[in-house]
Amino acid sequence: MGAKHESRSASTGGSGKGPAGGSTGGSKDADRRIGRRALIVGGTAAAVGTAALARDELARLWWRVPGVERPREAGAVDYGGARWVAASDENWRRADRPDDFGVDMVIVHVTQGSFASAVRAFQDPGHKAATHYIVGQDGRVTQMIRELDVAYHAGNRDYNERSVGIEHEGFVDRPQDFTDEMYAASARLTAGICARYEIPLDREHIIGHVEVPGTDHTDPGPHWDWDRYLKLVRRAATSAPSPSASKSA
């Protein structure tokens, strides 16, 4: 299951909550990003002699003004086969991915417990961690955090910001927990994510939690069949007519 805190470095277990949890460093980073963007936009607009680009940028960034939140559609999911159950606000932070942070990885986790226990943990504000999705042994998919937001799941801030995290119900030392239904459902989910963000379907971009720098986690463990999983992901990618996604906020 995800690490206890979001980390700003590669240190194990993390060192802070990030902006959603009350840290001031994240808001300063956001301010700097807005400032850089404003300068770039202003310079470009002046060079081409038009304010259209500046207007577009300001329209997209208006919700970053302190006290203003970007509108969200309650219960919206990014994957059509998912059921929405919201994680605690303490276990993720608001973002506007991929506009503010590019998404180039999917990280595979194992819950080390039941599906229900993972949902309860991610709804617990004291847990300080959650993934975007949970996939059950029966193939059901629950989304708990929107893909545009940063989930505290990898134990490494940089990896959190650039990845989508998927938990899988079971235990790393029980190969029987990784069912056909789970592999198939997770592969369809990952194929859709990769299509949305143009992520290559390979082991450099679809990785296990154990491969995140600085983590002390071992999931998905030695019984996770990576060759089988990647074949299923690629098959799902070629058979899907289009990414299963809700593009609404």
TrEMBL record:
Residues 1-31 are annotated as: Disordered. Pfam families: Amidase_2. Residues 13-25 have a biased composition (Gly residues). InterPro entries: Amidase/PGRP_sf, Amidase_domain, NAMLAA_amidase_2. Keywords: Cell wall biogenesis/degradation, Hydrolase. It comes from the Bacteria. Residues 92-221 form the N-acetylmuramoyl-L-alanine amidase domain. Its EC number is 3.5.1.28. The keyword Hydrolase applies. It catalyses: Hydrolyzes the link between N-acetylmuramoyl residues and L-amino acid residues in certain cell-wall glycopeptides. The keyword Hydrolase applies. PANTHER family: N-ACETYLMURAMOYL-L-ALANINE AMIDASE AMID (PTHR30417:SF1). This is N-acetylmuramoyl-L-alanine amidase.
